[in-house]
Amino acid sequence: MTSPIEHSILATFILPIAQALRLRGIDAMEVIEDAGIDPAGVINPDRRIPIDAMQTLMRRCVELTGDEAFGLLAAEQLQPQVLHGLGLAWLASDTVYDGLKRTVRFGQLMSTGAVLRLEEEGELVHLIIDRAVDVEGFAYASRDFGIGMILRMCRLALGEFIAPVKIEIERPAPVDPARFEYMLSAPVTFECETTRLTFYLPDIIEPLATGDPA
Length: 214
Description:
The chain is an alpha+beta fold. Helices cover 42% and strands 15% of the residues.
């Protein structure tokens, strides 16, 4: 693993986080600025912010809201335009599996702090998320946020409900595990060495009505 100073994420990732803070009645711009992030820059599609600033922000969000599942709440606010070209490509994917492949292919453009890969095992497909950066006091809400965003894009692309077979997360068990399973719509195992979302292959190779195979 490398230093967090060397890694960054798209600044627009802050937008759904800001919306989640507003839903909790909190001044989002003040919290973002206190984390060392310029609020005016988060709408710039070319802007990036350091991973350590993102980690600081997510820790602060959990503290202020008292919500251990804040990362999942923030992910629910995601709109495709936050991901720029990838978001539009996701919606144009011919299958959810194709969208997942694009996520892996362009994952480093979204965040250099994570390494994504896909593995097939019979009729199961695993999306694995590893950390590429060693962060002291890692904000597990940021991992929840990443998982939630992937599932949000799956459901937006499909236009209906889709759920993983199971999810394994690199994070301590929360106080209320059932809430995480409810929000993620899947059985969740905590305290894992890595994060893995497992899908049933037939569920993610169905053609999408909004897809563009060409």
